[in-house]
Amino acid sequence: GYTRDEFMSISLSQLDVPESANLISSRMQELLERGEGFFEVSHYRKDGSIIPLEVSARVSSWGDRPAILSVATDITERKQAEAALYESEEKYRLLVDQSPYAISIYQDGQIVFVNSAALSLMGAQSAGELIGKPTSSIVHPDSLENARTRIQRMIAGETGLYPVEDRYMRLDGSVVPVEVSAAPFTFKG
Q1: CB of 105 closer than 8 Å to CB of 113
Q2: Which residues of the chain have pLDDT under 70?
Q3: CA 71, CA 57: separation in Å to the nearest integer?
Q4: Is 169 within 8 Å of 137 (Cβ atoms)?
Q5: Which residues touch 61 (CB under 8 Å, ≥6 apart)?
């Protein structure tokens, strides 16, 4: 928002928001030691609003004097998208964690996530008691082959396989009847 003349007459530190000001000196020191740097910073605009920037900087020279050449890119849209994604993930996490239905994620034949209702269903006190266990350890032995076949068919793209009634084995060995629904999706890549 500044004119070129205004911008050339102010110190860069005048633009620093307090959170960035604390980081600038260490970033400048790293830049001088390494000769280049890549970091994020926030500055005040002329109107007082804040602009998040991604800065790529390199130690150079200006005539016979040392200088720092920097290119700053406005990352407002990226920061807004990151904030929206974080909010969405937090809503999802809360929804899943507070669901009265047992929710678990299986990957490569192992349990990799369980919510509190799944802990209760399986008779576990903590997620650590279930995470890493093979899925075959919770499906009743009489149902195991059907469950494997169903999962393979689902992963191959077949639909209409769920919900199904099944039996699971709790950690104490007792059998619990369950209704299972499942869907494939990408989890941590």
Answers
A1: yes
A2: none
A3: 6
A4: yes
A5: 67
